[in-house]
What we know:
Order of helices and strands: HHHEEHEEE
Strand order of the largest sheet: 2-1-3-4-5
Largest sheet: 5 strands, mixed
Structural class: alpha+beta
Helix content: 25-40%
Number of helices: 4
Distance between the termini: 100 Å
Amino acid sequence: MHARRASRGMTLIESIIAIVILAIALITLTSFLFPSVQKSALPHYQVRAASLGQAVLNQILATSFDEQSDRNGGLSRCDELEQQPCTLPTLLGPEPNEQPAFYNDVDDYIGCWYGANAQQQCQQGMPLVSLLGGDSDQDYRNFVVNIQVSYDYDSALGGTVTSHNTSAFKKVTVRVSASNFTEYTFVAYKGNY
Length: 193
């Protein structure tokens, strides 16, 4: 008689209890485990954003202070002589039709730069590959870099205003972001020396 009863299967109450236990297990997984999987990408992103921001700053700071600066040993600086003023604050940016490979001063880099899948975040941007090089846009997938350069008039740095409304320092601000992650900001100064 016991052999017949064992082959009958589960009762309705046993099935409901099994479904409730399964539901509790799935709720636990979705509320604790799955968000931690998403957060596990954060350290990887932070390292890539920091590396990208530092690479961009290094690229920019390797160029001259201004278009009017002497690139042959710094014998004369813009704003030292009246006939050679620095670029006016309203004219900062790349020269017309100048390609990134030929940028020669820090304010040429002003603008938005994007990696693969991020072009829609830059209205009139350029690919990051043209700035830093690389094999393809996939090297900087989902990354966006916004670069701003302005004269810094902070008197603590010696950034007094000249007669042309310029300063001896330019502040370079690089903002790196990707997808839903936090934006990281990097700031450097380039002096007119």
